[in-house]
Write a structure and sequence with these properties.
Blueprint: H1 9-34, H2 38-51, H3 56-68, H4 72-89, H5 96-107, H6 139-151, E1 154-158, H7 165-176, E2 184-188, H8 198-205, H9 218-226, E3 231-236, H10 242-255, E4 259-265, E5 274-278, H11 290-294, H12 297-306, H13 312-324, H14 329-336, H15 339-342, H16 344-352, H17 370-373, H18 375-384, H19 388-397, E6 404-405, H20 406-413, H21 420-432, E7 436-438, E8 443-446, H22 448-461, H23 464-485, H24 491-500, H25 502-514, H26 518-534, H27 538-549, H28 557-573, H29 582-587, H30 594-608, H31 614-631, H32 634-651, H33 654-671, H34 674-690, H35 694-711, H36 714-730, H37 734-751, H38 754-770, H39 774-793, H40 802-815, H41 819-836, H42 842-845
Helix pairs in contact: 1-3, 2-3, 3-4, 3-5, 4-5, 6-7, 9-10, 12-13, 12-14, 13-16, 14-18, 19-21, 19-22, 20-21, 20-23, 23-25, 23-26, 25-26, 26-27, 26-28, 27-28, 28-30, 30-31, 30-32, 31-32, 32-33, 32-34, 33-34, 34-35, 34-36, 35-36, 36-37, 36-38, 37-38, 38-39, 39-40, 40-41
Length: 846
């Protein structure tokens, strides 16, 4: 109203609007204070307070921002400034709310402390790929699917091959991912051969490694892991495995109340409550109007992919092409690659020729499968336009599972008339023809229907068996190249490379099993064992090693012994075996293989350290360390010292703890092994905790948490969260401790990490008691006690945390006023401490 400042109505309106603006500013400042943004507010509100010195609500927000930013003196000065101004100019005193705020700041009232930061996200919220091209003509379909997902829990998108079901489903999932607490996740079923349980694939996609228990109960483990989660699961390309997928979905939906499933398939899952939506081909209007044609989805898609302008002459020919191709998006995209070379008129003319392979797209037998009526004809037509060399490379690419790198394509696809140097040009040409898709990073993959067509061609070529063996040998070499690099500066890179090749590595193992080659199978699984261990996929590793060991035939004793060691150690960690399996596993090593036996002794010692037989553990560690020092194996020396530091922590031996953990961290640091540094620093945190330096313990844990998250080492993420919870308990910050401990416990349970789950549960129980949530504290303390008693009954010794738990139960009883129960629990705790013979828990027992 600047132009009307002199009008009578303007000052009233301006004053009203200015009051509303200031009230909104104050409300916003209070909301930002609740979000912990006090640091940014100090300067912003200072200017406003100077401009409006008598607004007490505004000044209160500024005082809170100053106080929470560590400037309490300035906050109190601001109050005195207002008091003087009110007294001198108006003869008034500040209001009661502002006076109460001043008193709270003076007394250090914790209610005026800054809010705790929100919990850190501990894993990505989605694995949905970013869109590469614009989704054209599917706005209505996306809206209908979103509405269907709001109305029901299972939506199946059906339609013929190549119609774009995956693209539409991904667009829907991207638009909804933020509305689900656990995000939206894509499970691509094209890489699954239908053997086993599809729940295993879903567990892998969600990064939920196996928990202890029956390895055959993947479906129950998945349901248990998802029971309290709210997420959208996109099951893509179900048609070739529709029966087992339908069984899985039928079991999950009743067990996971907040789960939504969006499936794509060429046939429905036929489950109760299923909402079926058919995705039709893109529409081409029956008109000659160029404007209407240019606006139709099919024509717009073709023009966009061919890079052609929408001029009237071009649009008419494109519309004819689109009609003859039934508006099927993949068919249009394949045809669009030919438009620059042939031109639209020539392309349309070829489609008019009777008997042309493209013409069969809309004229196939009505009782034939949809793929044969539509997409197979498109692929067949494209196939026949390729040179012999292009056909050879395309069918050989189909042997890969889940895509491949260029290096893998060159290694597997060369041979005969195709040299390794030619593969790049041939693959590039196939990408240009939309027969090979470029995936994330330097990877290539075949579209589903193209891969199926090419596998048929591979079978007819007579070279399938040789190609599958060449593929398996290539990925065996990759795994063996990766194995030593996972213990050095290339760890992060090679973890990522093996992650990307998971499907190919599984296919390689299946080839060796099918050919009954135990040597290759054992070499592959032994090479991958450390990768599986780092990723926390203990169950997968245990099963793969078991399968390799079961392949009949002769294999070198050292190779079989190495696999047996991995298999035994993993079985112990998964609670499928006990320490009694250690000696037989070690006995399998030949005397000449000192290095292999030393690595095995360390791994088995680290696997059995929680079973209470400290003497046996120390013996194994001493044997391993002696061999490592003799051989100059610095990685092995660092690993033993890190494990030995854990024993020193249990005994409260600060000198040994500091010596071993610092030496271990230094060695791992020199080797560039990030995982190893994390293991050693774990006990530097323990050392800081023992010496009472909680600030250092928290700093180490927070730094390591970031590293573990970047590496995707989720067991270490859980461990650092548990340490942070423990430190916050001792710092007198039980609410933050509860948040950290709950995250640590949830993640440890998903990973099947018994030790991590126990550590997190201790922090959770101790924090809950200090926060006044006594029932929650008792619940977790009794769970810990039950786990300890179970270990005792199994003859696995007394867990070191038992005395702490018993004494904490006594403190809980004392807090409730039950003196007799408190004394009883304390006596049991002290007895447990004496039985353990360790200083771990001594302070609690006393």
């Amino acid at each position: 109203l600047a132009d009307f400042a002199d009008e009578e109505f303007a000052p009233v309106a301006v004053a009203r609007w200015e009051e509303q603006r200031l009230a909104a500013l104050e409300s916003r400042a209070e909301a930002r204070l609740e979000l912990g943004e006090h640091g940014d507010l100090v300067a912003e509100l200072g200017e406003q307070v100077a401009a409006h010195p008598y607004r007490e609500r505004l000044r209160a927000a500024h005082m809170r921002a100053l106080h929470r930013a560590g400037r309490a003196g300035e906050a109190l000065d601001s109050f005195q400034e207002l008091r003087r101004a009110l007294a001198d100019e108006l003869g008034l005193e500040p209001g009661q709310e502002l006076v109460a705020l001043q008193r709270a700041i003076l007394s250090g009232d914790p209610a005026e402390d800054a809010p705790a930061p929100p919990p850190r996200p501990i894993r990505p919220a989605t694995n949905l790929p970013a869109p590469v091209t614009e989704l054209i003509g599917r706005d209505l379909a996306v809206r209908e699917i979103r509405e269907a997902l709001a109305a029901g829990r299972l939506v199946t998108l059906i339609g013929p091959g190549g119609v774009g079901k995956t693209s539409v489903a991904l667009a829907v999932a991207r638009s909804l991912a933020a509305t689900y607490a656990e995000g939206a996740w894509l499970v691509d079923l094209t890489t699954w051969d239908g053997l086993g349980d599809p729940a295993e694939l879903v567990l892998s996609v969600l990064s939920i490694p196996d928990a202890p228990g029956d390895p055959g109960q993947a479906r129950e483990r998945l349901a248990a892991a998802l029971r309290d989660r709210r997420l959208l699961l996109v099951l893509d390309n179900c048609e070739h495995v529709v029966a087992p997928v339908a069984e899985l979905v039928g079991a999950l939906l009743p067990a996971v109340p907040e789960l939504r499933v969006l499936a794509t398939s060429r046939e429905p899952l036929r489950l109760r409550g299923e909402i079926r939506l058919e995705l039709p081909p893109l529409d081409v209007p029956a008109t000659d109007d160029p404007a209407r044609l240019a606006d139709s989805p099919a024509v717009r898609l073709f023009l966009a992919r061919a890079g052609l302008p929408p001029d009237p002459g071009t649009v008419a020919g494109v519309a004819e092409v689109c009609r003859r191709l039934d508006g099927i998006p993949l068919a249009l995209e394949l045809a669009a690659t030919r438009a620059p070379a042939l031109g639209v008129p020539e392309l349309a003319a070829r489609l008019r020729v009777p008997g042309d392979r493209f013409g069969l797209l809309g004229a196939g037998p009505r009782d034939a499968p949809a793929r044969q009526r539509t997409l197979a004809a498109v692929i067949d037509w494209s196939w026949r336009l390729l040179t012999e060399a292009e056909q050879t490379v395309l069918r050989r690419l189909a042997v890969h599972a889940g895509g491949c790198t260029l290096a893998s394509a060159e290694a597997v696809c060369r041979g005969g008339a195709i040299s390794g140097g030619e593969v790049l040009d041939l693959v590039t040409g196939l990408v240009d023809r939309s027969l090979v898709a470029r995936g994330e990073g330097p990877r290539f993959r075949l579209l589903e229907s193209v891969a199926a067509y090419c596998l048929d061609e591979l079978g007819r070529s007579g070279e399938e068996a040789a190609l599958r063996r060449r593929h398996a040998d290539h990925y065996l070499a990759l795994a063996e190249e990766a194995a030593p690099r996972l213990r050095g500066p290339g760890q992060r890179e090679w973890l990522g490379r093996l992650d990307a090749e998971t499907a190919n590595l599984r296919a390689a193992l299946e080839t060796f099993r099918r050919e009954a080659d135990p040597v290759a199978a054992l070499r592959l699984t032994s090479a991958l064992a450390w990768y599986w261990f780092l990723r926390g996929r203990f169950g997968e590793a245990w099963r793969a090693l078991g399968a390799a060991l079961a392949v009949p035939g002769d294999a070198p004793a050292a190779l079989r012994a190495e696999a047996e060691t991995w298999h035994t150690g993993l079985a112990i960690r998964l609670d499928r075996a006990g320490p009694e399996r250690v000696a037989p596993a070690l006995d399998g090593f030949p005397e000449s293989d000192r290095a292999g036996r030393a690595r095995a002794a360390w791994f088995l010692a680290a696997s059995t350290i929680d079973f209470g037989d400290e003497k046996a553990t120390v013996t194994l560690l001493d044997q391993a360390l002696e061999a490592f020092l003799a051989d100059g194996d610095r990685w092995g020396e660092a690993a033993v010292l890190s494990t030995r530091a854990m024993l020193a922590h249990l005994h409260g031996d600060r000198e040994a703890l500091e010596r071993d953990t610092r030496r271990s961290a230094a060695l791992f640091g020199e080797l560039g092994d990030d995982w190893g540094v994390l293991q050693a620093r774990d006990w530097l945190i323990g050392l800081a905790d023992l010496t009472g330096d909680r600030a250092e313990a928290a700093r180490l844990a927070e730094d390591d948490l970031r590293v573990a998250e970047e590496l995707g080492l989720w067991s270490d993420v859980a461990g650092r969260l548990a340490w942070l919870a423990w430190v916050r308990v001792q710092d007198g910050d039980p609410l933050r401790a509860l948040a950290h401990a709950e995250q640590a416990r949830t993640l440890s349970a998903e990973l099947g990490q018994r030790t991590g789950k126990v550590f997190a549960a201790i922090g959770l129980a101790f924090a809950a008691r200090r926060a006044g949530r006594l029932d929650l504290a008792e619940e977790h303390l009794r769970e810990l006690l039950a786990e300890a008693r179970r270990q005792q009954r199994a003859g696995d010794g007394d867990p070191p945390y038992l005395s702490m738990v018993l004494v904490e139960l006594g403190l809980l009883a004392c807090q409730r006023g039950d003196r007799d129960a408190a004394l009883s629990w304390h006596r049991q705790g002290f007895d447990a401490y004496r039985a353990l013979g360790s200083s771990y828990g001594l302070g609690w027992a006393l």
